[in-house]
Amino acid sequence: MQIIKRIPVKQILTESSRQALKDRFNKKYDQLDNECQQLLFEQRKMERNKEFNQNDIRQRFSKELRLRKERMKRLQYQIKQLETLPDGEELKVDEVETVVNVEEGDHYEELLKDRQIVIKDGIVIRAR
């Protein structure tokens, strides 16, 4: 049997990786901000159309806006971490899914132990 497990991807901070991550985080932040503006525009547009239930519209759009704003807060936190952590520290930058084979007799805790991928300047240096 196979199961899917999420594992973190951590970046070892260097001067070049710090700037690349900051650019990437800022780009994602700007994209989410644009999406929020677009959602607000679409919400106002749909609210003017009386064919739709106003409460349903507000609930759907507020949920989508809330999710994007939470992601924006996480990005702000990561940018703040980038500024405070020294070079050589590990920063979680992503999560990926991996397939784990499970067989009868396997030690379950061993299969699900804390695994992670560590990269430095775009190169995988550890997959533990």
Structure description:
- The chain is an alpha+beta fold.
- It has one domain (2-127).
- Helices cover 54% and strands 25% of the residues.
- The chain is built from 3 helices and 4 strands, in the order βααβαββ.
- The chain has a 4-stranded mixed beta sheet with strand order 2-1-3-4.
- α1 (15-48) runs antiparallel to α2 (54-84).
- The protein is flat.
- The model has no long low-confidence stretch (mean pLDDT 91).
Tell me, rounded to a whole number, the average pLDDT: 91
Helical coverage, percent range: 40-55%
Give the N-terminus to C-terminus distance in angstroms.
22 Å
* Beta fraction: 25-35%
Largest sheet: 4 strands, mixed
**Structurally, how many domains make up the residues?**
1
Major β-sheet strand ordering: 2-1-3-4
Number of distinct helices:
3
Shape: flat
**Stretches where pLDDT falls below 50 for ≥5 residues?**
none
**Secondary-structure class:** alpha+beta
Q: Give the tally of β-strands.
A: 4
Task: Give the H and E element order.
Answer: EHHEHEE
Rg of Cα set: 20 Å
